[in-house]
UniProtKB/TrEMBL annotation:
<dbReference type="InterPro" id="IPR038461">
    <property type="entry name" value="Schlafen_AlbA_2_dom_sf"/>
</dbReference>
<dbReference type="Pfam" id="PF13749">
    <property type="entry name" value="HATPase_c_4"/>
</dbReference>
<dbReference type="InterPro" id="IPR007421">
    <property type="entry name" value="Schlafen_AlbA_2_dom"/>
</dbReference>
<dbReference type="InterPro" id="IPR036390">
    <property type="entry name" value="WH_DNA-bd_sf"/>
</dbReference>
<dbReference type="InterPro" id="IPR038475">
    <property type="entry name" value="RecG_C_sf"/>
</dbReference>
<dbReference type="Pfam" id="PF04326">
    <property type="entry name" value="SLFN_AlbA_2"/>
</dbReference>
<protein>
    <recommendedName>
        <fullName>Schlafen AlbA-2 domain-containing protein</fullName>
    </recommendedName>
</protein>
<dbReference type="InterPro" id="IPR036388">
    <property type="entry name" value="WH-like_DNA-bd_sf"/>
</dbReference>
<feature type="domain" description="Schlafen AlbA-2">
    <location>
        <begin position="29"/>
        <end position="103"/>
    </location>
</feature>
Length: 511
C-alpha cells in the first residue's frame, strides 16, 4: 500500500471493514477490535490513526510485536498480515484481518463484534449477527453490470416521491442508496445494486437466484400459464403486477355515498407479499421465488424461513427483523417497504376489511410460503364493516382480527381469541371488553359472539322518529302484516319502541 492509497482510505472514514486505532491502545483492546473485525466481515485495521482519520504515527510498534500479541490473546485464532506504510506524516501499521470462519473470543466469555460504528460483545454460544449478503460486493461484479435504464428508473421513482436523492448525479445517487462500494479504490456494485439495477446478463451470470417464476392455475392440477422473470426488482414488481392484474377480478359495492372496489387479490396486499419475499429471502440459496396464482388463493414461496425468533404465531407482534438490511434500506428509500416493519399489519388490515381471511404462513425447513385466500364475497359483511367503521370512527387492527375470526368460527373463548390476536390473554381481554362496550361483540357463558347489526330494526327505528300507524310501517319496509307485528313487538319488549293510542288510533313511536 502506498502513502497516497493510505490517505485515500483514511479520507473515506471508518466502516464495516475499516478501523482506526491509536498506537497507545492496550494489547487487550487491540485484540478485541481485531477480533471484532474478524467476527464480522474481516477488513483492515489501521494502527496509529485517530478516529477522524488523522495520522498519529506508530513509530514504537514492531509488526512482529503486534502479531505475537494478537496470536496469544486469541488462543492462536487470529494472525493478521501487518503492512508498514510510511510517509511525510509518520508511520502507520495496516493490519489486514481475514474474516474468521468461527467466532473468536478474547478473554473469558465474550465475543467482540464490529458493525462499522461500534464494538459490541456477544456471550459465548450466542449466534453472531447474520452477515448481510446484499451489502457484499461479488468478486466478478463491476460498474458495467449496472443498466443505465434501470438507474434512470430508480431516479424517476425518487422524483415521484419528492426525494432529494433524485437531484444527485448517478454515482452519488447509487452510493446514497447503498448500491455501490469502493473496493481497493475501485467503484463496484453491491449485491443490492445488482438486484435493483443490474443488467439481465449480469443477473444471469452473477445472481441467477434472482429469478421469479409466475404460474397461473385454472385448476388444482397443473398450470395453464408460466413466465420466468429475471429482472431488477422495480421492473420485476411491475411485470408481476401486470400478470396478476390480467387475471384479477373485481366487484363493486355501494356503501352509502361510497363505491368500494373489492378485488380477488388487493394490489397493495400482494405487492407487500412479493416485496417481503424479496427482502427476507435467503439470497445465498440458488432457489427462485415462486408465485402460484389460483382463483381462490395466491401463494408466494421464497427460500429461507423467518428470521430467528419469528414464527407464524407471533409474526404480527414481533419487532421487525431484516435478513438483508442493505436491500431493505434501499427499498425503503424507494418507497417499497415501511421502515417500521408495518407490512404484515397492512396485509391483515386490508384483507380483513374486505371480509377475507388473514394471511397464512407455511413454514418449511428451508422455505416459507405465504398464502393469500380469496373466499366467496360476503357483501353484507363488507357493508357492515364499512358502515361500522364510519359510525365508530374506524376500527383498530385488533378489532378487525377479532371480528373476522368470530365471523369464520361463530363463537370463541378468550384463549382462542388471544391466539388469533397474537396477544397475551390479559391484553386480549382488554381489547374484547372495549369491543363489547362498542357494541361489536357480546359475551354469553364465557364465549364471545358477534353482535351483528339488525339493519331491519334500524330502518324501523329511523322511521318511527315520528309516530306511525302499522300500515305505514308495512308500506315503508315492504313487509307483510305478520312480519311487521313481530318486529314491532320485539322492539317494544327491548324497550326501544312504545305503542300509543288504542284501536284505529294506535300509533308506534321510538322511545
Amino acid at each position: 500500500m502506498t502513502w497516497e492509497e493510505l490517505e485515500e482510505r483514511l479520507a473515506r472514514g471508518q466502516d464495516e471493514r475499516t478501523l482506526f486505532l491509536p498506537q497507545d491502545i492496550s494489547p487487550e483492546d487491540l485484540a478485541r477490535y481485531a477480533a471484532g473485525l474478524a467476527n464480522h466481515k474481516g477488513g483492515t485495521l489501521f494502527l496509529g490513526v485517530s478516529p477522524e482519520g488523522k495520522v498519529l504515527g506508530a513509530q514504537d510498534l514492531h509488526p512482529l510485536q503486534v502479531t505475537h500479541a494478537l496470536f496469544e490473546l486469541t488462543q492462536g485464532l487470529l494472525l493478521p498480515y501487518v503492512e508498514v506504510v510510511e510517509g511525510p506524516w509518520g508511520r502507520v501499521l495496516a493490519l489486514h484481518v481475514p474474516q474468521s470462519p468461527a467466532a473468536i473470543a478474547v478473554g473469558t466469555g465474550r465475543v467482540p463484534f464490529w458493525d462499522g460504528r461500534r464494538l459490541s460483545e456477544l456471550k459465548v454460544g450466542q449466534s453472531l449477527p447474520e452477515p448481510d449478503f446484499t451489502a457484499q460486493v461479488l468478486p466478478a461484479a463491476s460498474l458495467s453490470d449496472l443498466d443505465p435504464v434501470e438507474v434512470l428508473r430508480l431516479r424517476r421513482i425518487l422524483e415521484e416521491r419528492g426525494s432529494a436523492l433524485a437531484a444527485l448525479p448517478d454515482l452519488e445517487l447509487l452510493f446514497a442508496l447503498g448500491l455501490l462500494e469502493r473496493v481497493e479504490g475501485e467503484v463496484r456494485p453491491t449485491v443490492a445494486g445488482l438486484l435493483l439495477a443490474g443488467t439481465s446478463l449480469a443477473l444471469k451470470r452473477l445472481l441467477p437466484q434472482a429469478e421469479v417464476s409466475y404460474y397461473f392455475h385454472e385448476a388444482e392440477e397443473g398450470y395453464s400459464f408460466r413466465e420466468d422473470l429475471l429482472k431488477p426488482i422495480p421492473a420485476l414488481l411491475e411485470r408481476l403486477k401486470e400478470l396478476i392484474q390480467a387475471r384479477n377480478r373485481v366487484r363493486f359495492l355501494t356503501v352509502g355515498l361510497f363505491r368500494l372496489e373489492v378485488w380477488d387479490f388487493d394490489q397493495e396486499v400482494y405487492r407487500e407479499a412479493l416485496v417481503n419475499a424479496l427482502v427476507h429471502r435467503d439470497w445465498r440459496s440458488k432457489d427462485a421465488i415462486q408465485v402460484h396464482h389460483y382463483r381462490d388463493r395466491l401463494e408466494v414461496s421464497n427460500p429461507g424461513g423467518f428470521p430467528p425468533g419469528i414464527t407464524p404465531e407471533n409474526v404480527l407482534r414481533h419487532p421487525p427483523k431484516r435478513r438483508n438490511p442493505r436491500l431493505a434500506e434501499a427499498l425503503y428509500r424507494l418507497g417499497y417497504v415501511e421502515r417500521a416493519g408495518s407490512g404484515v399489519d397492512k396485509m391483515y388490515r386490508l384483507l380483513l376489511k374486505y371480509g377475507k381471511e388473514p394471511p397464512e404462513y407455511r413454514l418449511f425447513p428451508e422455505a416459507l410460503t405465504l398464502v393469500l385466500y380469496n373466499p366467496e364475497l360476503d357483501e353484507a359483511f363488507v357493508r357492515e364493516i364499512a358502515e361500522a367503521q364510519e359510525r365508530l370512527g374506524g376500527f383498530s387492527l385488533d378489532h378487525l382480527i377479532a371480528v373476522g375470526y368470530l365471523r369464520r368460527v361463530g363463537e370463541a373463548g378468550l384463549e382462542e381469541l388471544a391466539r388469533a390476536l397474537q396477544l397475551p390473554e390479559e391484553a386480549a381481554r382488554r381489547v374484547l371488553s372495549r369491543m363489547e362496550r362498542m357494541g361489536l361483540l357480546r359475551k354469553e357463558g364465557g364465549r364471545y359472539h358477534l353482535a351483528r347489526r339488525d339493519l331491519l330494526a334500524e330502518r324501523a327505528l329511523a322511521l318511527l322518529e315520528a309516530p306511525r300507524r302499522r300500515q305505514e310501517v308495512e308500506r315503508a319496509l315492504g313487509l307483510s302484516r305478520k312480519r311487521v307485528l313481530e318486529l314491532l313487538r320485539r322492539l317494544i319488549r327491548e324497550g326501544r319502541v312504545e305503542r300509543v293510542g288504542r284501536g284505529a288510533a294506535t300509533r308506534y313511536r321510538r322511545r
